[in-house]
Amino acid sequence: MTNKARSQRKIKWMYDYLAEEGEASAQEMADHLRVKRTKDGDITSMAFDVRTMSGLLTRSPLFRRSGSTRLKAISGGSYEVALWSVVPLDDLARKYDGVKHPLTRLKNLPKFVRDYVAEKVGVIDE
Hints:
The protein is an alpha+beta fold. It has helices at 3-21, 26-39, 50-59, 89-96, 102-105, 111-121, and strands spanning 63-72, 78-86.
């Protein structure tokens, strides 16, 4: 499996989680996905570390930073953590409406996103 396919699967899982839960931090998503994947019996070598999650959240047009919260550190201080939420697919489709080759620009996103944008924008086959 390629890195692109792994990233697309992680993006899909994060999108599903945020669509259900509202907003969450990268750490909450990583913890949830680790537990869920283990409970489902899907033993996988894919890592759900916070750096990977944060990188995907930052680069993907499917997610937006919706705020931040402060957490207490074990050492006694506190630190700030970004909270993420999903961008509605209609907003994403509107963004790519009128773009010459919208699906080429979305090639690194999961298939459900490409299919949705193609349907809304009216792309027949690219």
